[in-house]
UniProtKB/TrEMBL annotation:
<keyword id="KW-0472">Membrane</keyword>
<dbReference type="Pfam" id="PF07970">
    <property type="entry name" value="COPIIcoated_ERV"/>
</dbReference>
<keyword id="KW-1133">Transmembrane helix</keyword>
<dbReference type="InterPro" id="IPR045888">
    <property type="entry name" value="Erv"/>
</dbReference>
<feature type="domain" description="Endoplasmic reticulum vesicle transporter C-terminal">
    <location>
        <begin position="149"/>
        <end position="366"/>
    </location>
</feature>
<protein>
    <recommendedName>
        <fullName>Endoplasmic reticulum vesicle transporter protein</fullName>
    </recommendedName>
</protein>
<feature type="domain" description="Endoplasmic reticulum vesicle transporter N-terminal">
    <location>
        <begin position="8"/>
        <end position="97"/>
    </location>
</feature>
<dbReference type="InterPro" id="IPR039542">
    <property type="entry name" value="Erv_N"/>
</dbReference>
<keyword id="KW-0812">Transmembrane</keyword>
<feature type="transmembrane region" description="Helical">
    <location>
        <begin position="21"/>
        <end position="44"/>
    </location>
</feature>
<dbReference type="Pfam" id="PF13850">
    <property type="entry name" value="ERGIC_N"/>
</dbReference>
<dbReference type="InterPro" id="IPR012936">
    <property type="entry name" value="Erv_C"/>
</dbReference>
């Protein structure tokens, strides 16, 4: 046992050099100082890499089915009033959301872009004093109000108690409302007067849409939309205008929740209409994205790329309605971002390599300089003897 202990005491991987065989020099001190600085910088770099998470990116096939897609938008139309602006959404499965009002907020803007009024779309309507009943008489105190739908009733007991109800009934029938002044509800609510009062104003519309996770489109256009002979049209006659200025600024457009590093290419994009009317089109490719942080929290979201196009209005074609269209399609490939820390053993290995490598190089440099000095000195002595 004692012999084994003595052998362990003599074991030395790095045996020390006798002091008679080396000498301290200025060049050696400089090399040691420089090596220490380099070692500190490399150590600090490795420490920063260890403390900060790195992101691993992978591409996988998206096999999810039956999910929904949340579209968040914030768009400003400086030359289109809120009273005539509507939002529609539809997809390839045949599902349609026409004149969407839920989760939509509109802000009236003056010519300078200042907010005049902020209201939730479709909420509230002026009270009508003694409105016209469906049977033709005026509302009395002991009666329940039931307004006429002016031929758009589906059942005998259907009632349209507001201008919006009449417009909605007409939309379901595929009709356009050409003269609101002939509708008692619209006349008493001042529908045309409200449009006239907001003439020259702009509108900031923002909110969200919940749609099926399939290819589709959503668009912003003047007038209430309806289907006529399987064609999507808007009742523009009610506004008595030949053209609409659809210049706009996309303050924000995102498909899903925000995640660190997310970039939405349409944010802060402005478009100015130069032709009298037409369709501004954005063709979007949506890429499903999953982001997982270092704590394991997962965010299901999307990224997208986009192409822009403008289609001028064609006279006599119902498809050429003035609108801002966003056509989106889903990529079959999903991107996953996973944050993770470098392991401690990887950090320790790199630090040991830095310390050992820097000191080895410094010793080699110091030895080569010392040997060079000795050779130079020896040559000088030989030269003097000669």
């Amino acid at each position: 046992m004692a012999g084994m202990m003595n052998k362990l005491k003599k074991l030395d991987v790095y045996p020390k050099i006798n002091e008679d065989f080396y000498r301290r020099t200025v060049s050696g001190g400089i090399i040691t100082l420089v090596s220490s600085v380099v070692m500190f910088l490399l150590f600090f770099s490795e420490l920063r890499l260890y403390l900060h998470a790195v992101t691993e990116t992978k591409l996988v096939v998206d096999t999810a089915r039956g999910e929904t897609l949340r579209i968040n938008f914030d768009i400003t139309f400086p030359a289109l009033s809120c009273s005539i602006l509507s939002v529609d959404a539809m997809d390839v499965s045949g599902e349609q959301h026409l004149d969407v009002k839920h989760d939509i907020i509109k802000k009236r803007l003056d010519v300078h872009g200042n907010v005049i009024e902020s209201r939730q779309d479709g909420i509230g309507a002026p009270k009508i004093e003694k409105p016209l009943q469906k049977h033709g008489g005026r509302l009395e105190h002991n009666e329940k109000y039931c307004g006429s739908c002016y031929g758009a009733e589906v059942a005998d007991d259907d009632c349209c108690n507001s201008c919006e109800d009449v417009r909605e009934a007409y939309r379901k029938k595929g009709w356009g409302l050409s003269n609101p002044n002939l509708i008692d509800q619209c006349k008493r609510e001042g529908f045309l007067q409200r449009i006239k009062d907001e003439e020259g104003e702009g509108c900031n519309i923002y909110g969200s849409l919940e749609v099926n996770k399939v290819a589709g489109n959503f668009h912003f256009a003047p007038g209430k939309s309806f289907q006529q002979s399987d064609v999507h049209v808007h009742d523009l006659l009610v506004f008595q205008k030949d053209s609409f200025n659809l210049s706009h600024k996309i303050n924000r457009l995102a498909f899903g929740d925000y995640f660190p590093g997310a970039m939405n290419p349409l944010d802060s994009v402005e478009w100015t209409q130069e032709q009298p009317s037409g369709m501004s089109q954005y063709f979007i490719k949506v890429v499903p994205t999953v982001y997982t942080d270092v704590n394991g929290h997962t965010i299901q979201s999307n990224q997208f790329s986009v192409m822009e196009h403008f289609k001028g209005a064609e006279m006599g074609h119902l498809q050429s309605i003035p609108a801002v269209y966003f056509f989106y399609d889903l990529s079959p490939i999903k991107v996953t971002f996973t944050e993770q820390h470098v392991s401690f053993f990887h950090f320790l290995t790199n630090v040991c390599a830095i310390v050992g490598g820097v000191f080895t190089v410094s010793e080699m440099l110091d030895s080569s300089i010392y040997c060079g000095q000795k050779v130079f000195k020896k040559k000088m002595e030989i030269g003097k003897l000669g």
